[in-house]
Amino acid sequence: MIKYNLQCKKCNLIFDSWFASSKEFDKLKKKRLINCRSCGSLQVEKNLMAPKLINRSVNFKDEKKNIRKYQQIRKTINKYQKFIKNNFDYVGENFAYEARSIHYNNKKRDKGIYGTASKKDIKELKEEGIDTHLIPWVENKNN
Fold first, then answer.
1. Rounded CA gap, 56 and 51, in Å?
2. Which domain holds residue 24?
């Protein structure tokens, strides 16, 4: 796990975020999945930060415990994802449109839906009284 100090270039918010590795940060940045929690901008960059020097008294058992905890969380997220994929219809980028269609037109579906939407879309859906939920989504290396 690695913690980066990030800065939004649009609103100048500075915040910390954890990533599995520096490669994971780069992968998420490339897929445009890192955004500002304040304004939603994708213009988020690593900020200058001082390196953390490892002290010889570091307890590696705690580090292993943290890695196991991260692996357990990832395993749980994967179980949720499998359930969602098996029981909901994927609508991709059309999530906001499909959710409104179901809500306003009483469009009947055999299954619920899942897909992607911007934070702005999610906020607008909630303001319209349309029940939505954000869930973490991780890419499976096996898929």
1. 16
2. 2-46
